[in-house]
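User: My advisor, Dr. K., asked me to get a structural model of this assembly before our group meeting. I'm new to this, so sorry if the format is off. These are the inputs:
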Amino acid sequence: MSASSPGEQLHAFAERLYPICRSITGNGVRRTLRIIGERIPLSINEVPSGSEAFDWEVPLEWNIEDAWIEAPDGNRLAELGRHNLHIVSYSEPIRATVDLAALRHHLHTLPAKPDLIPYRTSYYRRQWGFCLSHRDAEALEPGKYHVVVESSLAPGSLTYGECFVPGRSTQEVVLFTHVCHPSLANDNTSGMTIATELAAWLASEPRRFGYRIVFAPGTIGSLCWLRNNEHGLKRIRHGLVIGLLGDPQPLTYKQSRRGNRDVDRIVPFVLRNLDASSRVIPFEPYGYDERQLCSPGFDLPVGRLTRAVNDGYPEYHTSADDLSLVTPGKLEESLEALKQIVTALEDDVRYINMCPKGEPQLGKRGLYGSMGGSSPADAQRAMLWVLSQSDGHTSLVDISAKADLPLASIKQAATQLEAAGLLKQQEDPAPPANEQ
Ligand code: ZN
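Assistant: The format is fine. Below is the predicted structure of the whole assembly, which you can bring to the meeting.
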């Protein structure tokens, strides 16, 4: 039996996470984090119901055992056991008999996509409801319907997980993905899968920065994390919110709120070199946890990497966002892009030319024509570019972009020049989080 490809392994992990009934609190998130914790070291944080997170409050914990509607003919429909999307997330418990007209007030459908089940939540308004295909809802006959929602809303806690990979520097890169959606493959499962595998890769060798990978419910979860970590935010040098990474659309970078942070320069540089169809879009206050992380009170240098943009794909928040939309190939491509982004963040170093008056004589230092690699001419050019640009302000990523030479060649040239005493690395500047 041949080993499965990295993309197939990613997809297999997504298949484990997809069936779990998640919400912003409850055992679905805990089960999810336990599975992620089998792969990477994860610290689990529980934030009690009623805790304040800035202008928000952690709600009661919601858990669900089962839910269904029994039709007048005795058949069951909208059964939770058939699809997690059938129940409106945070539905309160109920056991009642209602007529069709009353039932319809609690049914949610998508008339424009009559075969799909929509995804609906009601975190902050107490109600109950079912989601089903418009076609099934239209076919309901008049009569008495028995509705059962076996759920609980009780004081408990909100759960988030965090994996920290230490680096040489005290500065950190934060990576955020949301973990609150039930049985939606691209919007949720793909982000968790990629973030898990990226964390495992990050921990596999020494790094310049510390990496903090956070798996939290959207909005209230990231606000709880921000509240618990507010004192340490100045250590954040770069950040990315990641999700929606398995669909067929090209990789898309959404800029930080200010749009001019280092991450806004480095990620588009990597994507440009990877895929000419990749996109860069400006910040907007709609989307995922970048809304909280970039809010003016935190103003973190955090961008976002996705493929599709928010609701910009037809399967968004419907039962069609399933494991067939997310492909091994796209998952693997997304993970590879993130590895290259990390490499570029780590290599984005500034040097000073220690022999800046004229060109240093490379021959007498054994550097002229001495380099290996497939193209000695390119290696020579890389050296000249690094020497000419190393004024303490221009980073290796900038030099690679200007010279149109691979970052790896620029980095190799800098390493050799530094070993020959011709370059000196600039210290990492102070964390930029609070600069204005
Ligand atoms: Zn969503």
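One thing worth pointing out at the meeting: The chain has three domains: 6-59+158-347, 61-154, 350-425.

User: Perfect, thanks a lot.
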